[in-house]
Amino acid sequence: xxxxxxxxxxxxxxxxxxxxxxxxxxxxxxxxxxxxxxxxxxxxxxxxxxxxxxxxxxxxxxxxxxxxxxxxxxxxxxxxxxxxxxxxxxxxxxxxxxxxxxxxxxxxxxxxxxxxxxxxxxxxx
Length: 125
Fold this sequence. Notes:
Helix content: 25-40%
Number of strands: 6
CATH superfamily: RutC-like
């Protein structure tokens, strides 16, 4: 069995899971979100991406190591606002051409009622 390292740079979790798992040169990042009820989709997207960045960095990587994301939106009509923040975040972290592959889906509910977006990711070191 390969070595498995749990990664939690101080991010609170709402259940029995690790924010990140590192195995060999891969980091698997659990779905992250921002449960702040006063944040709009843009603020929640940025807060969520910053959590992912913190996890990747704690595992020895950087944003440019992220190769895949899955974005869960509570309301697909907010896609363009989420997408603008997503693009800006990656551009500001030196990723402007080789964006991660991505799936974006609308779901009816997220774990906390105030959550508007959840994002999971995979990074290769």
